[in-house]
Each structure stands twice: as structure tokens, then as C-alpha cells.
Write a structure and sequence with these properties.
The complex is a heterodimer of chains A (about 325) and B (about 80). With about 325 residues, chain A is mainly α. Chain A is about 75% helix and about 0% strand. Chain A is globular and about 70 Å long. Chain B contains three helices and four strands, in the order βαβαββα. Chain B starts with a strand and ends with a helix. The chains are: A mainly alpha (about 325), B alpha+beta (about 80). Chains A and B meet through helix 5 and helix 10 of A and helix 2 of B.
Chain lengths: ~325, ~80
């Protein structure tokens, strides 16, 4: 049995008994969809964010940087991208993280793998995908994010761009004496709880707006209208989706329910994945913050390579699935 | 006691500064809270995430927004 079956029963009860909509009416269907998805995502967000933040409390960057100087650089790229899955950082941590890694001898390309994977394989986005599309799409999203992070990081590492990092970065003296604090398990649980509540509070309004918009599309947009304008036959759809995704950074949580409804109306999976990746990975605020440590030329190399990686993934999934 | 909040000026860091100022007031401490947005100061402390709450130059809370009670506890502990 589906573990969300009781939620469906509840949604049915509210929409058809409490509000007494007709069972096959468009409005009734939209309301039902809104209640079911809203509750389901709330439950998934709370549980998974909590688990991820407990895992993360064992992996502070001060500790993981030691694992990132492998003799074979590509191995470090892979480890960095994997660590990035469970350690999303608020964009305000990007600069100290970057300086800290580069200073402790982690190669520039490996640092980039981490910087790409951490925001792109976003915990909230992964949860929303799991809740709305099921495990296959969530795993596809996570693994293609990791692969892009590894490849783009590896390429940037080969280009030997160290001279394009702002000079002051190399001059900072890092005090490595700081001991990684030994928190008790109850401390970790308490902190994770706090973090989960804060995060759910911040993103949930966007989730609700997104689910509502998604419910409207679900109920009212004509079948297959997107298949005609943005289907596999239109080669410009993927780059266009990536462009539209760039300014939507702060609303990653709200965009996914809309994307789900758009897919029901014929948006191909690759185009949808490329769109979601550009929402999470290509964010203006983060680029502006990274400018503090990277010379403009390095940003001008980094952004197009990452963009091409995302577009390529979009085409690939459209071809394969 | 030297109380510092370090961050890169993001909303979370500003919130931590507000909470800390309020905690100091509620504990009737005379110390002022310094707000530092120079990221290199964070890195010099050996820390790699923001925001940071530092007391007497030592980071006591890193990369996470605690509630008021937690900040008060940390301040009380440091006073001893």
C-alpha cells in the first residue's frame, strides 16, 4: 500500500465531503490535488531535511577537506561532488568555504566540483522531485547533478586557472588549530530539528504557491499544449528552459510543482530537468558572491561551461527517455 | 567579554546578529556585539561556513542559526 494513501483519503474527504465538490468537477480535482500534494510535500520535507541535517552535522567542511586531496584528482572530484549532495550551503557560506578549501591545498577543480554539486543537488529540490515524480526522477536528478559537477570540475582543473583567483585569497593565513567540536547526539538532533523548522518555515509558502499554480495548470490547461510548443521536436526548448530558470533561484521550491503539471501537459523530462538544474545551480546571488574570490574572467569561463553541461544533460534525457 | 558575529551579510547572518544583541540585552550584559562582514576574518578563525558567533576570538557556534536560548547559554557559559 502507498504510505500516502491516508493523505489521499483525507484530501478526498476535505474536497468531496467538507466542500462537497462533485467528484469529477475540474475545481474539485484541483482542490483535491492541492490538499494532497501540499500535505505530502510538507511531510517529506520535514522528515528528509531532518535526516539530511543530522548526517550533515557529522560532515562539517572543516573535516571533509582532508578527504579532498587524493593523488588522482578525478577521485577527489567525485568525492567532492558526493559530499556536495548532503552539504548544501547557504550562498553566504560560499566564500569562506571556497577560501578554506583552496587554502588547505584542495585543487581548484575539486573545489569547483563541490561548489557546483552543493547548490545544484539541492535538498529541497530532491525532496520535491521524490514527492511529486517518484524515486526514478529524483535519482536521475541527483546523479546527473553529480556527474555534471565531476566533469565541469575536472575540466576547470585541467585548464590551470589558479591565476584567475583573486590574489588576496592566497594571502589569507588559515588558523588550522580550531578543533572540530564534539557535539553530543542530543545536540545534533536538537540543532537538526531547529534547522528543519527554520527551513520548512521559509520554503513552505513557496511550495504552497507552487502547488496552487500547479493545481490550476492540472485542472485548466489543455492537454498536450506544451507538447506542441516545447516538445522534443523543438530543439530550442532546452536552452530556453535553462534561460528561464536562471532568475527563479529563490523560488526553487515553488517551481517544481508547476513543472510537474507542465510535464503532465507534455513537457519532456530532459527539458524539465535542465530547467530545474538551472533554477538551483545558476543563481545570480551566488555568482555575485563568488565574484569576491574569482576574477571576472574565471566567472566568464565557469558559467558557460556549467550552462553547457546542463543543456547537454537536458538533451541527453530527452533522447534517452 | 568580546562578542562577535561574523557573516557575509546574508539574511541568516543578520538574524544571528539581531538574536545575539537581544540575548545580551536580556542577560543584562554590558558588552557590545561586533558585527563583522569581512569574510577573510571568518577564514582566519579556521571556519568555513557562515554565520559564526565568536566569543573572545573563539568560534563557539558555526554555520547555523540557533534560537535565543542557545545563544544565551553560550554567553552564560563564556562568562564563567
Amino acid at each position: 500500500m502507498d504510505i500516502f494513501y491516508p493523505v489521499q483519503l483525507f484530501a478526498d474527504w476535505v474536497s468531496y465531503t467538507v466542500f462537497s465538490f462533485a467528484k469529477n468537477s475540474v475545481l474539485g480535482g484541483a482542490v483535491n490535488f492541492f490538499i494532497f500534494d501540499g500535505i505530502k510535500i510538507f511531510l517529506l520535507l520535514s522528515v528528509i531535511i531532518f535526516v539530511v541535517s543530522v548526517i550533515r552535522s557529522y560532515l562539517p567542511p572543516e573535516k571533509t577537506k582532508k578527504w579532498l586531496s587524493n593523488r588522482f584528482e578525478i577521485v577527489s572530484n567525485v568525492i567532492a561532488a558526493l559530499i556536495g549532495i548532503v552539504t548544501p550551503f547557504c550562498s553566504c557560506s560560499a566564500v569562506p568555504l571556497f577560501i578554506g578549501l583552496v587554502e588547505s591545498g584542495v585543487p581548484l577543480g575539486v573545489t569547483f566540483s563541490y561548489l557546483i554539486s552543493a547548490p545544484m543537488v539541492n535538498e529541497v529540490a530532491a525532496v520535491m522531485l521524490l514527492g511529486l515524480f517518484g524515486p526514478t526522477v529524483a535519482i536521475l536528478y541527483i546523479s546527473s547533478g553529480v556527474i555534471i559537477a565531476v566533469i565541469v570540475g575536472f575540466i576547470l582543473g585541467r585548464l590551470k586557472l589558479e591565476y584567475l583567483v583573486e590574489d588576496y585569497v592566497w594571502k589569507i593565513k588559515v588558523n588550522n588549530q580550531m578543533k572540530v567540536d564534539n557535539k553530543t547526539v542530543s545536540d545534533r538532533l536538537k540543532e537538526s530539528c531547529q534547522y528543519t523548522i527554520n527551513l520548512v518555515k521559509t520554503v513552505f509558502p513557496y511550495v504552497l504557491i507552487g502547488v496552487a499554480a500547479g493545481a490550476l495548470v492540472h485542472g485548466y490547461a489543455p492537454e498536450n499544449f506544451l507538447a506542441r510548443i516545447a516538445g522534443k521536436g523543438n530543439p530550442l526548448a532546452v536552452p530556453l528552459a535553462v534561460l528561464i530558470g536562471v532568475p527563479l533561484y529563490s523560488n526553487a521550491a515553488g517551481t517544481i510543482p508547476i513543472v510537474k503539471s507542465l510535464m503532465e501537459k507534455g513537457l519532456p523530462i530532459g527539458t524539465a530537468l535542465a530547467f530545474m538544474m538551472s533554477v538551483t545551480a545558476l543563481s545570480f546571488p551566488e555568482m555575485i558572491i563568488l565574484r569576491k574570490v574569482l576574477k571576472p574572467k574565471l566567472l566568464a569561463i565557469y558559467i558557460p561551461i556549467l550552462t553547457l553541461g546542463i543543456i547537454f544533460t537536458g538533451y541527453l534525457f530527452n533522447l534517452v527517455i | 567579554m568580546k562578542i562577535q558575529v561574523l557573516g557575509s551579510g546574508c539574511p541568516t547572518c543578520k538574524k544571528l546578529h539581531e538574536i545575539t544583541v537581544e540575548a545580551v540585552k536580556q542577560l543584562n550584559l554590558k558588552d557590545s556585539v561586533e558585527y563583522i562582514t569581512d569574510v577573510s576574518k571568518i577564514v582566519e578563525m579556521g571556519v568555513m561556513s557562515s554565520p559564526v558567533l565568536a566569543i573572545n576570538g573563539k568560534p563557539v557556534m558555526v554555520g547555523f542559526l540557533p534560537d535565543m536560548e542557545k545563544v544565551k547559554d553560550l554567553l552564560k557559559e563564556a562568562q564563567k
